[in-house]
Amino acid sequence: MKRWVAQMLILCFLFAVNFNQSSAQVDPALEYHLVWQTELDQRVELVEWRPQSDIVAVAAENVVILLSAQTGEEIRRIEIAEYSPIADMAWNSNGSLFAAGDIDGWVHIYNEQWEETATFFALWLLALEWHPFRDELLTVNDSETSAHAYEDLRVTVWTLEGEVKHTLKSLRSVGDIEFSPDGQYLAGVKWNIQGIVWDAESYSIDHHISLIPSPGTFSDSHFAQSMAWSPDSQRIAFLSNNNVTEIFSFVVWDITDRKWVQEVQGADAFLYSLSWHPQAELLASAWGDGTVRIWDMITYRDVLTIDVPTIIGREGIIYSLISSVAWSPDGQFLAVTNVAGFVQVWRIES
Prior knowledge:
By secondary structure, the protein is mainly beta. Helices cover about 5% and strands about 50% of the residues.
């Protein structure tokens, strides 16, 4: 889930449920334990793994904090902007390049020695994603002719030197993008519950998706702004929140048959982030009630629920909201972040 969407949902919804320690309800087929946990001194809303599964990066306000995946020890801090919070960050497919950008639109690319190799401007940045097979960085950013922020969002393809290479034809106001694991497709999702799939080689539109599997469920308060691909690249899970009907769920789209295969309702709380296991039929989800839920994506059953500790923040505010979840690329670990700065890594095995 990208930062700006999380902030909007946080304003709509905060649960005050107090847990003294982490606990879990688990399916007997899953084995799990907490590897490490740490509390940072800043708000955390994004988490990303390096492809080698050795480093966890978290976005904390305007700073990227790099943590050891084995111990949670802080390795390095990189200030991305002086004041503006980070919109998104990502490693390329072999972990040799790292990109991060703030919401104003400044994007920075770093090499393995954390030397800045390029800086460019993508107005009102929302999301970024590396092409899996080419030296291209894609951004979701606003048109320079937009009269208002986030009015005319589009997908832009950049070279490593920060030059515009291509602008994708798309639905107006795409909010997030993600390549399929096999690199054949690029999926995008809109705030107003529409999706789009491009061919990743030519960037031509493959097909459109309506993110409403059940007729009559649309409203202006429906949020659909994050997604996760299945490891075989055949399905996409889309986050789906509606604070009018109070239906908080994810919906699953079949790429080959181009149809909905399942809608799954979870907690009575906003859903903030999804991450599909890279080798297994397990989907991790982050919820506003302080829980992380893992789903069997064959039976669509909740097989593990983890209660993450609540944090007492400034002015006595209780933070239980889980802002982000991410499986490690090797599939052995799950990183979890709390909006107040709590970071955990769990080992989960099936």
